[in-house]
């Protein structure tokens, strides 16, 4: 893009205060371009996934902004809300008539 070769990059880990060199290969460059395109498409769609809240979060500089502990369960909660009024046949309770009383019995 600017006609300068950039053969290496570096990742700085804030908690350990260590820098790790990364070789910038054509494969890595292609992966970064594809990832950036996918992120742009996701942002344009307005449907962002909830944070993952795993071991990577402990060393992330964006943890205070992201708040993965507070938001990690939202995806599951949203799915449960959708499923609440749209049960699938295998998840639907079965009803039967009580022999003696004629009442419906949840089985």
Task: Give the topology.
Blueprint: E1 8-13, E2 18-23, H1 26-45, H2 63-66, H3 68-71, H4 74-84, E3 95-97, E4 104-106
Antiparallel strand pairs: 1-2, 3-4
Written description of the protein model:
Pfam families: Cas_Cas4 (PF01930). This is Dna2/Cas4 domain-containing protein. InterPro entries: Dna2/Cas4_DUF83, PDDEXK-like_dom_sf. The protein has two domains: 1-48, no CATH class; 51-107, no CATH class. The protein is built from four helices and four strands. The chain has helices spanning 26-45, 63-66, 68-71, 74-84, and strands at residues 8-13, 18-23, 95-97, 104-106. Strands 1-2 form a two-stranded antiparallel ribbon. A two-stranded antiparallel ribbon has the order 3-4. A hairpin with a 4-residue loop joins strand 1 and strand 2 (18-23). The model has no long low-confidence stretch (mean pLDDT 78).
